[in-house]
Design a protein that fits this description.
It is built from 13 helices and eleven strands. By secondary structure, the chain is of the alpha/beta class. Strands 3, 4, 5, 6, 9, 10 and 11 form a seven-stranded mixed β-sheet that branches. The longest helix has 25 residues, at 64-88. The radius of gyration is 24 Å and the shape is globular.
């Protein structure tokens, strides 16, 4: 019979091996020694009476049993973190850590301005900002609040729609003035050789297809898979690119090209149900909502 009281540290090491694909990677992730991770794995396999990994040229591959155990172990991980945060939180005042995740652009351009007034009022609050697009950050307990540009589909999250955010094609006035012919259509903008696009990602190309424009990677002479690099390139006059219209309003030198061309995204706040009643989490969400709505309208938070 398998004993029920398996030490949580064994499961934590198990999850690290699954995610990192090797004992060495798991050891680095958990900041423990390689032999410690090996002992944990051997102990867990002994207790479960089954192998959990097989060796392959790319590292350790989880067995079918390990894959079945992973979501249960991740639920344990999330509950453990939530329990610790709840135990350490001071319920009568706003204090403690709030971990937020958002896309690179929102994490850099929007979040800090929204959080500054809140922390001025409650200096015992601390914030951790994690730029990421993975909604799994909340389900795994890696973040408390997520700002997303698409509606979260996971049933285990509380998601609140905040506002729509318009995406437009922008360039600096100096760049537009230097062009021999200002593009009058999206196809002309692509053909101009001044469009900023992705390197390996295909989101921009896919967004153009419904508009009747067929583009390929080589049509973009300035390429990056980083949205912050896109924004910086547009602001520097390196090319014309798609950016959030509210951000463009902050840069007076930017001109909207093809004003009739509009791509819409939605801004959502998501939180784990176990955290919605924690005062510091609720207060942070309450502070974010009006600021995000102002940003979506006029670019000012």
């Amino acid at each position: 019979m398998i004993e029920a009281d398996i030490d949580w540290t064994l499961w934590r090491s198990f999850l690290a091996i699954v995610r990192e694909g090797s004992l060495a990677g798991a050891a680095r992730a958990l900041r423990v020694s390689h032999p410690t991770i090996r002992r944990h794995l051997e102990a867990l396999e002994t207790r479960l009476k089954t192998p959990l990994f097989t060796r392959s040229p790319s590292g350790l591959e989880p067995t079918a049993v390990a894959l079945d155990l992973r979501p249960v172990a991740e639920a344990m991980e999330a509950s453990s973190r939530a329990l610790l945060r709840r135990a350490l939180s001071e319920r009568d005042e706003l204090a403690g850590v709030v971990r937020l995740t958002a896309s690179d652009v929102v994490a850099v351009e929007v979040l800090p301005r929204l959080l500054a007034p809140l922390r001025s009022r409650h200096p015992r609050l601390s914030f951790e900002i994690h730029p990421s697009n993975r909604i799994e950050d909340i389900l795994r307990g890696d973040a408390d609040i997520a700002l997303r540009m698409t509606r979260p589909r996971q049933k285990n999250l509380i998601a609140q729609h905040i506002a729509g955010v318009e995406i437009g094609l922008f360039a600096t006035k100096s760049l537009v003035d230097s062009l021999p012919n200002v593009p009058a259509t999206l196809a002309e903008a692509v053909a101009s050789g001044w469009m900023i696009g992705y390197d390996r990602k295909t989101a921009i190309i896919e967004a153009m297809e419904p508009l009747g424009v067929e583009a390929k990677r080589e049509d973009f002479h300035i390429r990056s898979d980083d949205d912050l690099a896109h924004l910086a390139a547009v602001r520097a006059g390196l090319g014309m690119g798609f950016i959030q219209a509210p951000l463009a309003l902050r840069t007076p030198d930017l001109i909207r090209m093809l004003p009739e061309l509009k791509l819409d995204m939605e801004l959502w706040l998501a939180v784990h149900p176990q955290l919605i009643g924690v005062p510091r989490i609720a207060a942070t969400m309450k502070a974010l909502k009006p600021g995000l709505k102002r940003f979506s309208r006029i670019g000012v938070v």
